[in-house]
Design brief:
This protein is mainly beta. The chain contains two helices and 25 strands. Bound molecules: 6-O-phosphono-beta-D-tagatofuranose (TA6).
């Protein structure tokens, strides 16, 4: 990967542009011959990805906040080092509200562009063994995300959860189905974390859904009849899949989410959470890699 100082200051003409995004937060716009993406340094957060002549792949709420210390609602929040609530510490870790450092830009001969970020040192990390988190976003006709976490402690294990909490844009929540999870055990958050087994080939959503599918490594697909496309989620280094749609009541309760927006999104999240958490030995690196691609139905 190239990390020339001038590229990191000025971008790459026609490929990588640095802008003030919403809330005046620093944003990177990436263009390839086949696609465009937008990434905020705040959270190393991909807020937009779209193939030429197709609707966006990622959902972003019209009501999202764009402010320091606030998570962005939509796109791909990077959840680390814990998932869900943690007493006294808030929800979903601190990585999503930190301004990540831009480390490298790499335009490749095949036309793709990769951007690497690193989580900065921050006071919240002091409660954990010393660790490094690198996030590489590769923009091409697919979007590839790679989160690598290294435990720098010489002798302490690092227990962690990670998740790419991806919000997908769909034509109509009532007209999608999600495949690839049949037979998996899941924790049903809507039913007080009851453990259940998925019996459906194709999951339909017509009420609040908040599930952690455990021990799931196979690709998951969102079949979107209304947009006439399929989104394919392939992953490595992830054994949990979270499926979430807040539906009507929860949507109304979220100040940074539109009342009707639940109809146009679904989260299918790849990570390692709950009993699938990672116990990273001293000196070792754990890598989570997710590829998002679309194809016509
Ligand atoms: O991944 C699903 C979930 O954990 C839900 O329980 C829901 O609350 C959602 O994430 C959003 O969390 P947030 O902290 O971004 O409001």
């Amino acid at each position: 990967m190239a990390s020339g100082k001038s590229e990191l200051n000025d971008g790459i003409p026609g490929r990588v542009t640095f802008l003030d995004g919403r809330g005046e937060l620093a944003m990177i716009e990436v263009s390839t011959a086949r696609s465009t993406a937008e990434i905020y340094l705040h959270g190393a957060h991909v807020t937009h990805f779209k193939k030429k002549d197709e609707p966006p792949v990622l959902f972003l709420s019209q009501c999202s906040r764009f402010a320091e210390n606030e998570p962005i609602r939509g796109g791909i929040p990077v959840i680390l080092p814990w998932f869900g609530p943690r007493e006294g510490l808030g929800q979903h870790g601190f990585a999503r509200v930190k301004k990540w450092e831009l480390k490298e830009l790499a335009p490749a001969p095949d036309g793709s562009v990769s951007v690497r970020f690193r989580l900065p040192d921050c006071p919240e990390a002091s409660g954990f063994p010393p660790f490094t988190a690198d996030f590489i976003v590769t923009v091409d006709d697919a979007l590839t995300l790679q989160l690598s976490i290294t435990n720098n402690s010489p002798d302490q294990e690092f227990p962690l959860e990670n998740c790419l909490h991806t919000y997908f844009e769909v034509g109509d929540i009532n007209a999608i189905s999600i495949t690839g999870l049949k037979g998996a055990n899941y924790l049903d958050k809507v039913a007080n974390f009851a453990q259940k087994t998925e019996i459906n080939d194709a999951i339909k959503i017509n009420s609040e859904v908040d599930r952690i599918y455990l021990n799931t490594v196979e690709p998951v697909e969102i079949i979107d009849a209304r947009l006439g496309r399929k989104i394919r989620i392939e992953k490595h280094g992830s054994v949990s899949t979270v499926v979430w749609n807040p539906w009507i009541t929860r949507a109304q309760q979220m100040p940074d989410f539109g009342n009707e927006e639940y109809q146009r999104m679904v989260c299918v999240e790849s990570g390692n959470v709950a009993s699938n958490n990672i116990k990273l030995p001293p000196g070792e690196t754990s890598t989570l890699k997710v590829k998002l691609s679309t194809m016509p139905l």
